[in-house]
Amino acid sequence: MRLLPAIAVATFLGLGACAATPSTVITHQDLDQEFYRGNGYNAAVRDGLAPVTVVGEPFPGVGAAAALAPLTPPASVAARGFAPADDAGARVVLIFHPRGPLSRADACAPAADLRAHVGAPGTEGGFTALVSLCQGSRRVSTALVHAAAPQSVSDPAYAGIMAQVLTEILPLTVPRELPQMP
């Protein structure tokens, strides 16, 4: 297995219905090519649902199942939707409204440990989510998204923002090492 640190910063538009929500995604990829090549996340899909550990709430009173319901997996994932999951195996860890940066080791920690790092929805003046692709306690890729706050999980902007960040950490092709600048 070869791990190659890389940081990509992308500004994109999270598209929903007729409106666009400007968002910024900062991605850290360890470029664990063997995990992507072996399709480790697809191997974890059960009954057509991909596993996601949800920490925090995107909006007040919205639980894990409701937060995942409007989301569609990117084309790289052989699933029709997402389902709440425990803290084991290959999964996405979705942390809504993190209160600060998390270390590499913390990104895939058990949900109970991560709750201390979560703020209340709407307190930071926008929408923030830290999304990590994990294999057990090992982080494969992480993306942090900041955007204008959607109105609710039924707002198309919410699904658009989350689709962009999920596509970033679950790419269609195997991440590869970029040429080094002279």
Quick overview of this protein structure:
The chain has 182 residues and is an alpha/beta fold.
Please tag this protein with its features:
7 strands, DUF4136 domain-containing protein, 32% strand, 18% helix, signal, globular, 182 residues, alpha/beta, 7-stranded mixed sheet
How many distinct domains? 1
Query: How many distinct helices?
Result: 5
Strand residue content? 25-35%
Strand order across the biggest sheet?
Answer: 1-2-7-6-5-3-4
General shape? globular
| DSSP strand tally | 7
Q: Could you spell the SSE succession in H and E letters?
A: EEHHEHEEHEEH
Low-confidence stretches: 1-19
Helix content: 10-25%
Distance separating the two termini: 26 Å
**What's the average pLDDT?**
80
Structural class: alpha/beta
Radius of gyration: 15 Å
The profile of the biggest β sheet is: 7 strands, mixed
Protein name: DUF4136 domain-containing protein
Keywords: Signal
